């Protein structure tokens, strides 16, 4: 899959990018939310892993823009150290598909990432079947 990772923290960006690449994914890294909608239109990622707390444009606002501005939006997953209750509420209000908590080991991140993506795809397949 082609995955865009958007995070203003360089260390997080590199760790998440490397972890996803280790599983064979193509990764596009962005260190700013500004201009991300245009980058999505140009790059056409399958998934966007999006930090919530970024300067200039918060991740939940960017997720809403992605939903509005792209014809077939990618799956948007929040990646944040906010409490899970807060993340779940932001997912519901923004159009994001789910979240993966920050601050976990890369292997734990990858397991959670794959679990969330698998669940989203199963739910989408269930909605499209007769």
Textual characterization of the structure:
This protein has 130 residues and is an alpha/beta fold. 51% of the residues lie in helices and 19% in strands. Strands 2-1-3-4-5 form a five-stranded parallel β-sheet, with helices on both faces. Helix 4 links the parallel strand 4 and strand 5. The longest helix is centred in the C-terminal third of the chain and has 23 residues.
Considering the chains and any ligands shown, give keywords for the structure:
130 residues; alpha/beta; five-stranded parallel beta sheet; 19% strand
List the helices and strands and how they pair.
Elements: E1 2-6, H1 10-22, E2 26-30, H2 36-43, E3 47-51, H3 59-69, E4 75-80, H4 84-94, E5 98-101, H5 106-128
Helix pairs in contact: 1-5, 3-4
Average predicted confidence as pLDDT = 88
Fraction of residues in β-strands: 15-25%
- Number of DSSP helices? 5
Termini separation (Å)?
Answer: 27 Å
Low-confidence stretches: none
Radius of gyration based on Cα positions: 14 Å
Oligomer: single chain
Q: How are the strands ordered across the major sheet? A: 2-1-3-4-5
Shape: globular
The overall strand count is 5
What can be said about this structure in brief?
The chain is α/β, with parallel strands linked by helices.
